[in-house]
């Protein structure tokens, strides 16, 4: 039943996209509920009173919050179709480790390049961000996706890199990513964005550029 | 075989204690390897090159890092004995959500009370910390432990509260926790610390007070 699964998200957030990507990979029907984050709905606040954030997955009326927690829930609830996480406990632990690394280390380090004020500060912030990308590049050795032959949990966690890095480059007018230095990640980005379940949900690039230009102006002029 | 499982930790870190508690609850033999964090061993740096941190669990020569990832690994590898996480996918998602909340929100909010300079700043930092504790109190309604009748994943994640809050109170000379306001959490603390698998690993209180007094002086005098 289509009305069994609802996903509260907005059009651009990579955390929300992780969930729709996963649902589409697994062929699960769902309803999109788009939130205006400047005026959150009473439903969203009721479903996620702790963080008051998207995404929230509502399954048979029960809410689940936090995108990585939702991905595991989806994988465990609809386990007959395309697995997202490996079965082996050690491989599973490695997937969890790298997804956590993406959220706790990689994403904040790239975001700080975006938010730092001025060229010099941004160049400095690039150093740890690139070191973090090197760890990720290393993980792709001998594999098409982090999940092996198919898109899995770590791929979905890292999905934002594939469609946002080059938007950031345009907005910042700064080279963030050198495909020659990261050949595996560069190939992964193409494969990831070309996959039908991913491609159909990628936000329009021009809208992203406009959104992040406004964001960037705000950060550059803030005290 | 005892030499199959090694845990790299130090004597006081709650992240390391989560692991030895879990191993003892499950009756798994292991070897403790105590690290001097001011001079980390080459083994630790080799096993955790990304974060260079304890705890690391080494099982049959393979390292696993990040305490919550390790707990899930332990539960999935030794699944015959005392489960740490619920079987039901929704209940499991709730346990993951609250453990993540403990690490991402509760712990940093309590820690900021510790690190803020001066009485007024500390009192202000107490407000979000207490709000976070209220969320946790709510979760204990009708339950002895977060895991139900037995200690589980969320209990282990929250374990630091049970033995550190009153050490912080002594060091800061500030009331952090009012048992009348948090009757369920207060009862939980007692039950948790009384459990044999937990009690035998609790660090000596006087050593903790000395350690955190030194820490606190450092924070209060830092620029």
From TrEMBL, chains A, B:
Enzyme class: transferase
Residue span(s) of domain GST C-terminal: 88-212
InterPro entries membership: Glutathione-S-Trfase_C-like, Glutathione-S-Trfase_C_sf, Glutathione_S-Trfase, Glutathione_S-Trfase_N, GST_C, GST_C_Tau, Omega/Tau-like, Thioredoxin-like_sf
Pfam families: GST_C, GST_N
SUPFAM superfamilies attached to this UniProt entry: GST C-terminal domain-like, Thioredoxin-like
Keyword terms, alphabetized: Transferase
EC number: 2.5.1.18
Catalytic activity: RX + glutathione = an S-substituted glutathione + a halide anion + H(+)
Superkingdom: Eukaryota
Span of domain GST N-terminal: 3-82
Protein family per UniProt: Belongs to the GST superfamily.
PANTHER family documented for this protein: GLUTATHIONE S-TRANSFERASE, GST, SUPERFAMILY, GST DOMAIN CONTAINING, GLUTATHIONE TRANSFERASE
Protein name: glutathione transferase
Species for this entry: Solanum pennellii
């Amino acid at each position: 039943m289509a009305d069994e699964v609802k996903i509260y998200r907005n059009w651009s957030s990579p955390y929300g996209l992780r969930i729709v990507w996963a649902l589409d990979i697994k062929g699960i029907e769902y309803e999109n509920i788009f939130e205006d984050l400047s005026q959150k709905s009473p439903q969203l606040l009721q479903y996620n009173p702790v963080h008051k954030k998207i995404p929230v997955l509502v399954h048979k009326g029960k809410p689940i919050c936090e995108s990585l927690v939702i991905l595991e829930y989806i994988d465990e609830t609809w386990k007959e179709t395309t697995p997202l996480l490996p079965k082996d406990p050690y491989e599973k632990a490695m997937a969890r480790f790298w997804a956590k690394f993406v959220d706790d280390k990689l994403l904040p380090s790239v975001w700080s390049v975006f938010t730092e004020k001025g060229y010099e500060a941004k160049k400095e912030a690039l150093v740890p961000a690139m070191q973090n990308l090197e760890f990720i590049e290393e993980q792709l050795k001998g594999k098409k996706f982090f999940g092996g032959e198919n898109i899995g949990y770590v791929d979905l966690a890292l999905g934002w890199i594939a469609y946002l890095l080059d938007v950031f480059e345009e907005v910042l007018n700064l080279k963030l990513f050198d495909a020659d230095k990261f050949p595996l990640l560069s190939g992964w980005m193409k494969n990831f964005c070309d996959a039908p379940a991913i491609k159909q949900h990628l936000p329009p690039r021009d809208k992203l550029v406009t959104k992040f230009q406004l964001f960037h102006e705000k950060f550059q002029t803030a005290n």
